[in-house]
Amino acid sequence: MKTEKMPWYALYVHSRAEKKVYERLVEMGLEAYLPLVTKMKRWSDRMKKVEEPLFKSYLFVRSDEKWHYEILSIPGVTKFVTFERKAVVVPENQIKAVMRYCDDYTGDEKPMEETELHEGQLVMITSGELMGLKGRLAPINNKKRLIVYIESVGHYLPINIPRSKIEPVHENMIIE
Quick check: helix, strand or coil at residue 155? Predict the structure, then answer.
């Protein structure tokens, strides 16, 4: 099934059911995205690398509304993320931002280049795949990173990005 023209939606699923729901969506022929990151976990007797969802209990699916009831019937799916009882479309650039973050994720904190920007300042990415994405600059572990708010999921996503690819945005500008 061709889904590239369909919008992305966020699904809320039962805890620890993300991978099973993802597999079922793919089996149905739908394009789904489950952002995963690899982390080191410590048990009493060992350390092990494990892949876990970036957003616990959330994943993304491309579909049109005619598939929504079938998607909701998948075991483990709780609901679509909604606003005023309507499934919220997740903008393509936000999905790309999450994909980029997961591709670049190492678990290490990388500092941004020194800038004249300040904590809490609204900035916009001016070049590359994430061009046009807006977020706030915030300190994490005493390092400056761009924080992008993924509105439809309600999570903050830290993205390491060089100063040369961002510029300040005036607070009175409308954020899309």
Answer: strand
Query: Last residue of a domain, which of 90, 125, 141?
Result: 90
Residues 84 and 12 occupy one common structural domain: yes
Same domain, 82 and 12: yes
Q: Is the CB of residue 119 less than 8 Å from the CB of residue 49?
A: no
Per-residue pLDDT in tens (0 to 9) along the chain, 176 residues: 666 789 999 999 999 999 999 999 999 999 999 999 888 888 888 888 888 998 999 999 999 989 999 999 999 999 999 988 899 999 998 998 888 888 877 664 444 444 467 778 888 888 777 788 888 887 766 566 677 766 667 777 777 777 777 888 876 654 44
What phi-psi label fits residue 142: left (phi over 0), alpha (psi between -120 and 50 degrees) or beta? left
Question: Residue for token digits 């598939």?
Answer: 67
For 111, other C-beta atoms within 10 Å of its C-beta total: 12
Q: What is the DSSP letter of 105?
A: -
Collapsed DSSP state (helix, strand, coil) of residue 34: coil
Count of positions (residues) in the chain: 176
- The first and second tokens of residue 121, run together, are 């300042």
d(CA 99, CA 96): 5
